[in-house]
Design brief:
The complex is a heterodimer of chains A (183) and B (90). With 183 residues, chain A is an all-alpha fold. Chain A contains 5 helices and no strands. In chain A, helix 4 crosses helix 5. Chain B has helices spanning 12-19, 23-30, 34-42, 49-59, 63-66, 75-89, and strands at 9-10, 67-68. Classes of the chains: A mainly alpha (183), B mainly alpha (90).
Chain lengths: 183, 90
């Protein structure tokens, strides 16, 4: 029998709706792709990120005509968006709000977040070091962010948002054993 | 399970099979995802005290009867081992 919405206060109705949604989620698998496939997606995304960064350097250094390079850059960012959607499909349910997840799922999400932001810290440190060395020791020309600044921001956003998803997709075990709930 | 964390052994799979409860049903009763029950049974995840107590309530057993830091002896060995010991002492 379908439970009826309580006639009480708004808070009671919200609690009822949350509980219904949570109960529904308890019977669903949160990871929807085999580990091997998830790792292919993460590897592909990493390659596209590397290509995007290279394209940004090309744009910033004005090596090629601005219009063409920006076209390639936005196309690569589009491909990254596709990878992001696939990652969201694969493990995105683990990024839901706390009240939807159980304690094991919250622990997995928090662990992935911690690893992701440690990776981010290392990446930022390495980039800063490389830029510092290139600018001071070798006196190389620096890319300027005046060209295609939106693309730089978009790239940073994709990277920061998709990194925890990529860590979860890469590290979480195959859920095949549990995919078919017992009768 | 995070590195360095002591493994917690449990009898969840045996208790569940003994009472004919499915993973989904047990999960709904204690309010976790059914995959979490799989993780617990395989020893891939150690439950919080709250979840361990809820599981104890469901099976009507104390927490230490379900979870242990040492591996459990098989139930058959415990039951028949005890019976043999009693026979031997008579």
């Amino acid at each position: 029998m379908k439970p009826k919405l309580p006639q009480g206060t708004r808070a009671e109705k919200v609690a009822f709706a949350r509980n219904r949604y949570r109960q529904d989620q308890l019977g669903r698998a949160k990871i929807k792709m085999a580990l091997g496939n998830r790792r292919w997606v993460v590897a592909g995304q990493t390659v596209v990120v590397a290509l995007t960064v290279a394209a940004q350097a090309v744009v910033g250094l004005r090596i090629v005509p601005e219009g063409k390079a920006l076209g390639v850059l936005w196309a690569l960012l589009g491909v990254q968006a596709i990878f992001f959607v696939v990652l969201m499909y694969a493990v995105g349910n683990l990024t839901q709000l706390d009240w939807v997840l159980d304690e094991r799922e919250r622990a997995q999400r928090d662990h992935a977040m911690a690893i992701a932001y440690r990776i981010l810290l290392v990446v930022i440190a390495l980039v800063a070091l490389a830029v510092g060395i290139a600018a001071t020791v070798h006196a190389l020309p620096m890319p300027t962010a005046q060209v295609g600044v939106q693309a730089y921001v978009a790239e940073l956003l994709w990277f920061v948002v998709s990194l925890p998803l990529a860590v979860m997709a890469w590290t979480l075990p195959d859920p095949e054993l549990d995919l078919e709930p017992e009768a | 399970m995070p590195d360095g964390q002591r493994k917690i052994h449990n009898r969840l799979a045996v208790l569940r099979a003994e009472r004919g409860i499915s993973r989904v049903d047990l999960a709904r009763t204690v309010g976790v995802n059914y995959q979490t029950i799989g993780y617990l049974e395989r020893g891939d995840y150690s439950p919080s005290l709250d979840l361990a107590l809820r599981l104890g309530e469901v099976f009507g057993l104390p927490v230490e009867a379900i979870f242990s830091t040492r591996p459990f002896a098989p139930l058959s060995e415990q039951v028949y081992g005890n019976a043999r010991q009693e026979e031997g002492s008579r």
